[in-house]
Specification:
This protein is mainly alpha-helical and 89 residues long. The chain has helices at 5-18, 38-52, 73-87.
């Protein structure tokens, strides 16, 4: 567990989708390296949106031109933290 609830929740969701232990999810790992295919990534995005009551600007078909960085778990966490912070303003 980290001191940040956003990080903990994102890790829990990613681990659940990848069907791996939470301890196997590192912040520098890519979702693909953790075993998530494109469908698993989209399902993770939906679960993250639901968990934080946010809307993530994500298009799985956009290739490298995504508005939401999913290159690493830390990038996902940072993007979610920004969306949560913007929601509370």
């Amino acid at each position: 567990m980290t001191p940040d609830p956003v990080t903990d929740t994102v890790i829990r969701i990613i681990a659940g989708q990848a069907m791996i232990p939470e301890s196997a999810v590192t912040l520098d790992a890519s979702p693909t390296a953790l075993g998530l295919d494109s469908l698993g990534l989209v399902e993770s995005i939906f679960a993250i949106e639901e968990a934080f009551d946010i809307t993530i600007p994500f298009n799985a078909n956009a290739g490298g031109t995504r508005d939401f960085d999913v290159s690493t778990i830390s990038a996902v966490v940072a993007a979610v933290q920004a969306l949560v912070a913007a929601k509370t303003k």
